Amino acid sequence: MKGYVYIIAAALLWGIIGPLSRLAFDQGLAPMEVAFWRAALAWLFFGSHAMMAKTIRMRFKDLPMVLLFLLPGRQTP
Fold first, then answer.
1. Which residue of 19, 24, 54, 55 could cross-link 29, Cys pair, CB 3.0 to 4.6 Å?
2. Cα within 13 Å of Cα(54), Cβ side
């Protein structure tokens, strides 16, 4: 039963992305800024969950790939 509740909650949260984005756009936020805040909030929730579950760890051999992944996502002025 717990899994069904999680799936329904995820679907409801996914469903309100559009209306909340529309509200943000109506308040004058740019699409890139809305995308940034959506990603930042998602990272905050994921990071909090991972810290509480004590699953934050990275193997040293994975570090070069993580750093390589950061390069294309880096924004230049």
1. 24
2. 0
CB neighbour class for 15 (10 Å; exposed up to 12, middle 13-18, buried from 19): exposed
**Would you say 17 and 38 are in contact if contact means Cβ atoms under 8 Å apart?**
yes
Confidence band, pLDDT 50/70/90 cuts, at residue 31:
very high
Q: pLDDT-based confidence at 22, cuts 50/70/90?
A: very high
| Predicted pLDDT of residue 39 | 87
Instruction: With a cut of 90, say whether residue 25 has pLDDT above it.
Output: yes
**Domain tally, the chain:** 1
Three-state secondary-structure class, residue 70: helix
Would you mind telling me the total number of residues written for the chain in this entry?
Answer: 77
In which domain, by residue range, is 33 found?
Answer: 2-73
Contact 34, 24 (CB under 8 A): yes
